[in-house]
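In this supplementary section we document a worked example of the pipeline. Step one takes a protein sequence of length 153 as its only input; no multiple sequence alignment statistics are reported here. Step two produces a three-dimensional model, which step three serialises into structure tokens for compact storage. The input and output of this example are shown verbatim.
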Amino acid sequence: MNGNYLLDTNIAIARTNREAAVEQRVNASAAVFLACITVGELFYGAQKSGRAAENVRRVQAIVAANTVLVCDSGTAYHYGITRSALRAKGRPIPDNDIWIAALAVQHNLTLATRDAHFTGRRRPDGRILVAQHRRKHCEHRRNAHSLAAYRSP
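The serialised model returned by step three reads:
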């Protein structure tokens, strides 16, 4: 991995919640970025929460502390290739996740995510998904959560 991370929404949330495993991994990176799509998803989540004003302020602090990458025609190119390849393989994923992945590919960043559709799969375009696992203890049961890294070759 090149040490530069693009945080998916679920990892950005985990980081704001100060999850130790996420904090350790992300803090060890050379640089951390957010996708404009992730920022939109964070603002949406804040608006629909029971503490909208407080959570909007939290999102604003996250945005102020990180570099936000925006989509351009290069991103659109990678989006088109990835979406087409996934459709041909019968493995569609949510559009927002394709846009976020396209930004990671375009900028040669590692996509830090917990989305299951990124975990441990080879993409048709030759890019590899590497899964890292951690365990979360919840009362009497354990739930495995993945921190997957989407990277360019």
